[in-house]
Amino acid sequence: MDLIESNQLVNEQEHWWTKTRFCYIERAIKLLSKKRQSILEVGCGTCQNLAFLRTKERVSGNIERVVGFDPGFIDPPTFSWRKTNDLFVKTLENSSQESFDLLLAMDVLEHLDNDVEHLQNWLRYLKKDSLVLITVPAFECLWSYHDELLFHKRRYTKKTLRNLASQVGLEPLMLTYAFGHIFLPAFFIRKILAPFAKQKKSTDLQESHFLLNKALYSLGKIEALFGGNPLFGTSVIGIFTYANRDSNSLL
Q1: Least crowded by CB within 10 Å, which of 10, 140, 182, 250?
Q2: Fold of domain 3-242
Q3: Which residues neighbour 161 within 8 Å (Cβ) at sequence distance 6 or greater?
């Protein structure tokens, strides 16, 4: 989650949007199929993705080390994890000379003026034959106050994310849309209702009634189990392999 939104939810890990994204992280973990994995998350925000990796038994046994990077940290977050070699940093330079098996870049690239340059820089920290999980907001037709409040630069499609990935040597293992079940409601709220409402002072990520929260998560989980939505959604999700580098380039 973006740090700007951190005060809008009481329990972020139980929110339907966050929990649905965990499904795709778990898919990347399984695709990697290594017993001991080191993971780097860039733009990790409130670190709930890394907390999921550390606290859920079905995935935590595969995780050797996590490093969270976000230049917006006020204070590095603390979690009651048994692992003591995890690291949370405001800059990647000189923070670690190791290489990672999995890179998470979840809703980060849309904030950056030069998304290609930043992605290329992050790939320097990966081992050969590693994986990259990228999520970005989908479709310019959904551009709204939500994007402006979060300082987004752009929204993507599967095609534009594929083109971006190919420029830095990434090959897609999975490239799809997510949250297809909320595409039409999101379009209606942002494009039809918003012009008649008062100026929005918060993003669309809000607390939901527990029944609605459960229903939306169930729909998102089913969608994720089937590999996402090939046609539309509010997010683009890609899992890529990165094999075109010298694994000793940082050592």
Answers
A1: 10
A2: Rossmann fold (3.40.50)
A3: 134, 136, 175, 236, 238
CB atoms within 10 A of CB 24: 24
pLDDT of amino acid 125:
93
Mapping DSSP to helix (H, G, I), strand (E, B) and coil, where does residue 133 land? strand
Q: H or E segment at 172?
A: strand 170-178
Q: Is 205 helix (H, G, I), strand (E, B) or coil?
A: coil
- Report pLDDT digits (tens) over 68-104: 999 887 665 655 555 567 888 888 875 555 689 999 9
Q: Phi and psi dihedrals of 138, rounded to 5?
A: -110, 145
31: tokens are 């695709």
The model's pLDDT over 147-196, given as tens digits with 9 standing for 90+, comes to: 888 899 999 999 999 999 999 999 999 999 999 999 999 999 888 876 66
Give the CA count within 13 Å in the CB-facing half-sphere of 243. 7
- Please state the pTM of the whole predicted model: 0.88
**Rounded Cα gap, residues 181 and 193, in angstroms:** 19
Q: Could you tell me the two tokens for 132?
A: 């990259």
Torsion of CA 226, 40, 19, 78, to 10 degrees: 170
**165 by DSSP, 3-state: which?**
helix
Distance CA 96, CA 100 (A): 10
Across the range 203-211, mean pLDDT stands at 72
Q: Could you give the CA distance from residue 16 to residue 19 in angstroms, rounded to a whole number? A: 5
3-state SS class at 238: strand
Residue 13: predicted pLDDT: 81
Q: Which residue has the higher pLDDT, 247 or 198?
A: 198
* Nearest C-alpha neighbor of 191 from the set 153, 236, 139: 139
